[in-house]
Design goal:
- The structure is a single chain.
- The protein contains eight helices and 15 strands.
- With about 325 residues, it is an alpha+beta fold.
- It has an eight-stranded mixed β-sheet. A five-stranded mixed β-sheet has the order 1-10-9-12-7, with no helix packed on it. Strands 14-15 form a two-stranded antiparallel sheet.
- The longest helix has 27 residues, at about 125-150.
- It is globular, with a radius of gyration of 19 Å.
- The protein starts with a strand and ends in an 8-residue tail after the last helix.
Length: about 325
């Protein structure tokens, strides 16, 4: 394990929007990661989602494969995702289950795979309630504060189609935690940065999450991020880095095996597929011109997912 990293703690319940946005700005400049507390999602709800997640992953493999991923939604078995380009890496040691909103055009284009009600009667209502709660009371408010942190109007991301409460996806993750006998570290999730705007991560408290604040440095220096009960670990994604011309950092991170099973739930707050991501006026100048060309979110996700999922055929 690496050294412990002390991340900023942001209080989402604070009525001081401007001071909170300044704290978020500094966190995004320094780390690209921070904790979010007093966010309004109860610990009981977070624990309920983790409990239902464990029930799903404990099903026999043949029952899980009935819900196998089509496009980006559904069940993914061990080693289905591969971030490392090494020919010797067989993939990440984790199971995943990804779902999104069932409503609207996106819900029709990309239908979810759900476990049978007779197997897990509380599973779907628990997950749909979590999705809606996180988006309604956390996602929208947090993006508003990020906009203020970038000297933009609070509703900027809504106006340009970046915030769409039906475009987000939730990913349930299980890391078996076994340690191999070689000297190499076993990775549940190999080194990567997230693709979208912002990720909200809830964990069961088991260690393993690490970040590398300088992704260009060799050898890389990894620092441990502890789980704090009842908080979200928030990190900036690649699309937000593009929007901000590299001002806000999309930080490389990974999950290493610590000899203990680990569960987490990631909510990826992604833009509408047709949203065009281009450099913000507040983040460029004559001396700092745009570093990235404009890109449509759907095209960007399609390219990125195709690099990590061998059988990927579409994007949310």
């Amino acid at each position: 394990m690496g050294t412990a990293l002390k991340l900023p703690i942001i209080d989402l319940s604070s009525s001081e929007k401007l001071s909170t946005s300044r704290l978020i700005r500094q966190a995004c400049l320094d780390h690209g990661f921070f904790y979010l507390t007093n966010h309004g999602v109860s610990e009981e709800m977070m624990e309920g989602v983790l409990m239902e997640s464990k029930k799903l992953f404990s099903l026999p493999l043949e029952e899980k494969m009935v819900m196998a991923r089509r496009g980006s939604r559904g069940y993914s078995p061990l080693y289905d995702e591969k971030h490392e380009s090494s020919a010797t890496s067989k993939g990440d040691s984790k199971e995943m289950f990804t779902f999104g909103s069932s409503e609207g055009v996106l819900g029709q284009l990309y239908p979810n795979e759900w476990p049978l009600e007779e197997l897990l009667p509380l599973w779907r209502p628990t997950m749909e309630c979590y999705y809606k709660t996180v988006m309604d009371i956390v996602g929208k408010k947090l993006l508003g504060l990020v906009a203020l942190a970038l000297n933009l109007e609070e509703n900027f991301f809504e106006k340009v189609g970046a915030f769409n409460d039906q475009a987000a996806v939730v990913r349930l993750l299980r890391y078996p935690g076994e340690l191999n006998s070689s000297v190499e570290e076993t990775c549940g999730a190999s080194a990567h940065s997230d693709f979208g705007m912002i990720t909200l991560l809830a964990t069961d408290g088991v260690a393993g999450l690490q970040v590398c604040r300088d992704k260009d440095r060799e050898p890389k220096v990894w620092e441990d991020v502890a789980g704090i009960k009842g908080t979200f670990v928030v990190n900036i994604g690649d699309l937000m880095e593009r929007w901000t011309n590299g001002l806000f950092r999309s930080t490389m991170h990974r999950v290493v095996s610590v000899g203990k099973e680990r569960y987490s739930v990631a909510v990826f707050v992604d833009p509408d597929p047709n949203c065009v991501v281009e450099c913000l006026e507040s983040c460029c100048s004559e001396t700092s011109p745009p570093r990235f060309p404009p890109v449509r979110a759907k095209d960007y996700f399609h390219e990125r997912f195709s690099q990590t999922l061998a059988s990927y055929s579409g994007s949310d």
